[in-house]
Amino acid sequence: MIICSCNVISDTAIRDVVTAADITFGSPAQVYDCLGCTVQCGLCSRSVKRILDERQADTAVAAVWPVKPEPAPCAMMSAA
To answer: What are the C-alpha distances in Å from 77 to residues 40, 55, 70, 72, 73?
Structure first.
């Protein structure tokens, strides 16, 4: 889906850049800079910010998720 009509940028392109970059983006303007363009009318900024927030939430969950998952409750009951 096209997020930015001014620069014709899709949500997929934004997600790809946000996921592939080794930096944490602080604003939609930084994402646009990485894509080689600038924010024009600004109507897309909320959508880009939402994608950034989703990425930060995914990264935070991955950081606290246990490396070795606990056994499922059913597996624990059969061992007893």
So the answer is: 59, 36, 13, 9, 6
* Residue 62 structure tokens: 């991955």
pLDDT, one tens digit per residue, over 46-69 is 999 999 999 888 776 655 555 555
For residue 13, which of 56, 51, 45 has the smallest C-alpha distance?
51
> What does the alpha-carbon distance between residue 13 and residue 55 come to, in Å, rounded to a whole number?
14
Q: Indicate the residue type of 2.
A: I
Q: What are the start-end ranges of the H helices in 1-80?
A: 11-20, 28-34, 45-64, 73-79
pTM of the model: 0.69
* Amino acid, single-letter form, for residue 23: I
